[in-house]
Design brief:
There is one protein chain. By secondary structure, the protein is of the alpha/beta class. It has a single domain, classed as 3-Layer(aba) Sandwich (Rossmann fold). It contains seven helices and eight strands; from the N terminus they run αβαβββαββαβαααβ. The protein has an eight-stranded mixed beta sheet with strand order 2-3-4-1-5-7-6-8. Helix 2 packs across helix 6.
Amino acid sequence: MDILSRIFSRPDELPPATGDSFLVVGLGNPGGKYKATRHNIGFMAVDELARVQNTAATKVQHKALTAEYRLGEARVILAKPQTFMNLSGESVGALSRFYKIPPERVLVIYDELDLPLGTVRLREKGSAGGHNGMKSIIGQLGQEFPRLRLGIGRPLGQMPAHAYVLQEFGPKELELVREVLDTAVRATETFLREGIVLAMSRHNGKINEQ
């Protein structure tokens, strides 16, 4: 049975959460050929957060790979939707309903063409800005949820954006990508502990300016 068949057929095992919970979602496309691509930097950020918390997103739930940890009294659910990018909302909407997590406690991490590589930008709410994964999530949650955009820049020359985002990062970019992921983890932790306003004031901007 392939992974998508398991995702769509396996029953969920965890009970709905009681008390305060957060859902942290990284966006990307499933499968090995997409693993290191620009469009998957949201997946990379969630994987790094999971690593820091000594866990891994391996549990199959609501068309996503998930992990869970505790932050004080709060329950934090990490998720990597496996629906492919354009249908991410199917998974995010189902997870938020299952765990009874309101939109203001759902943080979505994703790639942003309009920001240079090395730039992070948190926002409290907003439109999809042309990002198909965000369009799908907004269709489920509305626009009133926080998001963490990780810049990947735009392609040079005539390369179409859809081809560019499915390219892997170049060797010269990887060191900066690692710094971006480290910043994404710290920004997420600030959001979880102290809220979106402080997280924005502390972490928004270019890596070398923070």
